Amino acid sequence: MSTEDAGERDTGTRTEISATTLRGIERASGGLATASITAMEQQLSWFNRLPADQRASVQLVTQTGVANFVAWLEDPTQSIRLTAEAFRHAPQDLSRWVSLRQTLELVRVAIDIFEQDLPGLAEQEHEEALLRESILRYTREVAFAAATSYAAAAEARGAWDARLEALVVDGIVRGDAEESLLSRAAALGWDPGSEATVLVGTAPSDDPPTIVYQVRSRAARVGCPVLLSVQGTRLVVVFGGSGEGRGREQTVDRLAEAFGDGPVVVGPTTPSLAEAHRSAGDAMSALRAVVAWPTAPRPVPSGDLLPERALAGDPEAERQLVEQIVLPLADAGGALMDTVDTYLEVGGVLENCAKQLYVHPNTVRYRLRRVAELTGRTPSNARDAHVLRSGLAVGRLAKARGLW
């Protein structure tokens, strides 16, 4: 239909409703609004539970809608502007305590009152059909305006939540453990008692909404809460729950799929979000040092990169190497440390190690098993041997400085 045809149709509709009928509807508009509110109170149990100020807000929207309906009958070309205006004048927090479904219920009740009372205000018989048609057209616009209003509110809340989430993740990365960080996370739905683990890596694209969708869809499949932030080319994800073991590994593997090319580092799991900065610190340090291990798996735990992190000057990595490698061996007696040190010096040849120590090869085997039990590192494994050698070296430096 052309614009001219539409204009002719609207003009015809306007002139076919007499001025007398329009004046009668205008005089009855207050009563229609009151009747609509009364019907809402009678038919909708949840409406009566609203506080007085919220019911007054609904009444304001209803009265504005009725007044705009009268104005629209006089000029139907203003329908979209007038219906949207009814919701624009409503309190900004209306959508917070009245859902879209409830709003549509309110609209339905008001429509019933309009269809019941308006035709009786027609001065002439043929105007009754015109009024019924006008009600249908106008209420359709009202429904679309309501949906548009709620969509805009949802987008605004989503944008605010995204900014709030970015602040939370940035605070975790910077090491803030303030109460405000925890309260913001709680506002986003994070369980304060949930465990937290940090993943860092390269963002898969420069489109944050796409990244958010990819991360959240994968998190939903494994059933874990997430907080995320895109910081330039870097993506930081904090996920909760999952604990240890196979469940955590599956979660990490699934979330790692949302990252771009390059390494993905997993920090240690912390008991709560308040301590997640430790996981973030380890993960960030490991991400900077992972370039020194070209064959590192993806994702790689930050604890597997302790030697590279220590070489890069991370004091936390040095501390962990001393605590995980040196102190257990020292507490168990000097024989274990001497054995693993000699074993590594002779290139992992058991017999040569036994000769150097003047002991039986079985004694060396026993001691190496004890080393594996105490440190979690098997000296015969190339990567573990590298970690053990680095740990012993860092331990000697620390001892020389009097740190242990």
Offer a few descriptive terms:
404 residues; mainly alpha; Globin-like; Alpha-Beta Plaits; Arc Repressor Mutant, subunit A; 3 domains; 5-stranded mixed β-sheet; 18 helices; rod-shaped
Task: Give an overview in words.
By secondary structure, this protein is mainly alpha-helical. It folds into three domains: 3-156, Orthogonal Bundle (Globin-like), CATH 1.10.490; 179-300, Alpha-Beta Plaits; 315-400, Arc Repressor Mutant, subunit A, CATH 1.10.10. 68% of the residues lie in helices and 6% in strands. The protein has 18 helices and five strands. The protein has helices spanning 3-16, 19-43, 45-48, 52-74, 79-88, 94-97, 100-117, 126-174, 179-187, 208-222, 246-256, 276-289, 306-311, 315-332, 334-345, 350-357, 361-375, 382-400, and strands at residues 196-202, 226-231, 234-240, 265-266, 300-301. Strands 2-3-1-4-5 form a five-stranded mixed sheet, with helices on both faces. A hairpin with a 2-residue loop joins strand 2 and strand 3. Helix 4 (52-74) runs antiparallel to helix 5 (79-88) and helix 4 (52-74) packs across helix 8. It is rod-shaped. It starts with a helix and ends with a helix. Mean pLDDT is 82; it is low at 1-15. InterPro entries: CdaR-like_regulators, CdaR_GGDEF, PucR_C-HTH_dom, PucR_C-HTH_sf. Belongs to the CdaR family.
Q: What's the layout of helices and strands?
A:
Layout: H1 3-16, H2 19-43, H3 45-48, H4 52-74, H5 79-88, H6 94-97, H7 100-117, H8 126-174, H9 179-187, E1 196-202, H10 208-222, E2 226-231, E3 234-240, H11 246-256, E4 265-266, H12 276-289, E5 300-301, H13 306-311, H14 315-332, H15 334-345, H16 350-357, H17 361-375, H18 382-400
Parallel strand pairs: 4-5
Antiparallel strand pairs: 1-3, 1-4, 2-3
Helix pairs in contact: 2-4, 2-7, 4-5, 4-8, 5-8, 7-8, 8-9, 8-12, 10-11, 14-15, 14-18, 15-16, 15-17, 15-18, 16-17
Protein name: Helix-turn-helix domain-containing protein
Domain CdaR GGDEF-like: 175-289
Family: Belongs to the CdaR family.
